[in-house]
Design goal:
Layout lengths: L10 E4 L11 E2 L7 E5 L21 E2 L2 E2 L5 H15 L9
Parallel strand pairs: 1-3
Antiparallel strand pairs: 2-3, 4-5
Length: 95
């Protein structure tokens, strides 16, 4: 039992699939309509890597090379951007 059955729209925001990995578009629950699973990118588009620079932030580098930051804040932020771009007219309240 879950409160989700009382919602008009429910979506799961998930990490993007790794290369060679595939996720279904919908999550199936018995007795409920399919739940859309939205892949949210965790890297900003303007986050360009520079080969000649040493990156010191441990959470965003590996051996001094810049890697994609996988922070929950980035995922939450991108989820709200997705909602603003795609779902504002589909519900009265978002949580």
């Amino acid at each position: 039992q879950t409160w989700g059955k009382r919602c008009d729209v429910i979506k799961f925001f998930i990490d993007p699939a790794e290369e060679g990995e595939e996720f279904p578009k919908y999550f199936e629950v018995e007795g409920a309509p399919p739940i859309e699973m939205v892949q949210v990118p965790l890297v900003r588009k303007n986050d360009k890597m520079k080969k000649d620079k040493v990156y010191r932030a441990k959470s965003c580098s590996s051996n001094g090379q810049k890697i994609a930051c996988r922070h929950i804040w980035e995922k939450v932020w991108r989820s709200w951007v997705y909602i603003a771009d795609n779902d504002l007219d589909k519900a009265d309240f978002f949580f």
